[in-house]
Amino acid sequence: MNLRDLRYALAVAEHRHFGRAAELCNISQPTLSTQLRKLEDELGVVLFERTNKSVVPSMAGEALLAHARAAVDSADAMLALAQASRDPLRGRLRLGIIPTLAPYLLPLIFGPLRDALPDLVIEPWEDVTTALLERLRAHELDAALLATSVEGPDLDTQALFTEPFLAALPPEHPLAHQDRVREEDLAPDVLVLADGHCLRDQALAACGNPGLRAGALRASSLSTLLNMVAAGYGTTLIPGLAAGVARDAGIALRPLTHKTGRDIQLISRTTFPRRAAIDAIATLIRTRLAPFADSAAHGEV
Fold first, then answer.
1. Which of 123, 130, 60 is nearest to 95 (CA)?
2. With contact defined as beta carbons under 8 Å apart, do 230 and 224 qualify?
3. Is 257 exposed, middle or buried (0-12, 13-18, 19+ CB in 10 A)?
4. DSSP 115-149
5. How far apart are CA 180 and CA 256, in angstroms?
6. Strand, coil or helix: what is 152?
7. pTM of the entire structure?
8. How many other C-beta atoms lie within 10 A of the C-beta of residue 21?
């Protein structure tokens, strides 16, 4: 039994198809089938129930594949640790990021990250805060870009920049004629994201007393909210990095009276061995976003 064959078995279990699994493993389908037969012979059980139309793990296969996953993950962790000892700025780094930040921040930082850290392969994973923290603690992510403070001795936080919120209004909305908008004045027709998005909670807290529409709309993305505002359906709060997209949609943007915003942070496990990689990413983001942070501080977003 070897890790290579365990990886083959896991690929088949994930894709339920020998051809796709073989392609992803960079081997021929006959070779994959032969190696899995050898593995089954060695274990003395059938791992997969095979038909002309499907490949499904057997009952014994389900149990054994869980151990195979643990073995492969442990081996990968050993390799990552050894690699980190040699060069923490080389290899892949799995980076989580919340959906209300990813479309606007990633285009600003990926090019500079590639130039500054050419041997570091960053794999972004977009999801809501709760899911990202679960993956981070389960070692399925190495770090996460969040807009929510987290606590716990197992997590390390690096502050990156403060992102102000802006009032997003239909051009004909009465509040669009004001130089600044009070957060609470948005409450009667404010639109917010669905449960699970930290921006929803932050917007409701800022507005204080949400109107009926806050509970009526179940938008899963900021782009949906922007489209609804552009159509005159209501108002919303948007993070400053999304200002360009909002203006392109014909939305009127106004600074807020109380200058409400959110703090963007880079979260990682305290035990993560490649601390130099986390520090390098944090430093680059701070540097790249410094002009934006300065403009935001003066209300010029």
1. 123
2. no
3. middle
4. HH-TTEEEEEEE--HHHHHHHHHTTS-SEEEESS-
5. 5
6. coil
7. 0.69
8. 24
pLDDT tens, per residue, the chain with 301 residues:
899 999 999 999 988 989 889 998 999 999 999 999 999 999 999 999 988 778 899 999 999 999 999 999 888 888 877 776 777 888 889 999 999 999 999 999 999 999 999 999 999 999 999 999 999 998 899 999 999 888 889 999 999 999 999 999 999 999 999 999 998 888 888 888 776 677 777 777 777 755 445 545 667 788 888 998 999 888 888 999 999 999 999 999 999 998 888 999 999 999 898 899 999 999 999 999 988 766 655 556 6
- Report the alpha-carbon distance of residue 46 to residue 35 in Å, rounded: 13
Q: What does the block give as tokens for 86?
A: 């040699």
In order of 167, 170, 189, 222, 244, the CA distances from 173 in angstroms are 11, 5, 11, 20, 19
What the block records as the tokens of 201 is 């909670």
Contact 170, 229 (CB under 8 A): yes
Q: Show the CA angle centred on residue 118, arms to residues 280 and 97, nearest 5°.
A: 55
User: Phi and psi dihedrals of 276, rounded to 5?
Assistant: -60, -35
Q: Which residue type occupies 34?
A: T
Dihedral sign (CA 200, 204, 207, 211): positive
Beta strands in 87-220 (DSSP E): 91-97, 120-126, 143-146, 155-169
Q: Is 211 exposed, middle or buried (0-12, 13-18, 19+ CB in 10 A)?
A: middle
What single-letter amino acid sits at 126? E
Q: What span, in angstroms and rounded, lies between the C-alpha atoms of 141 and 232?
A: 39
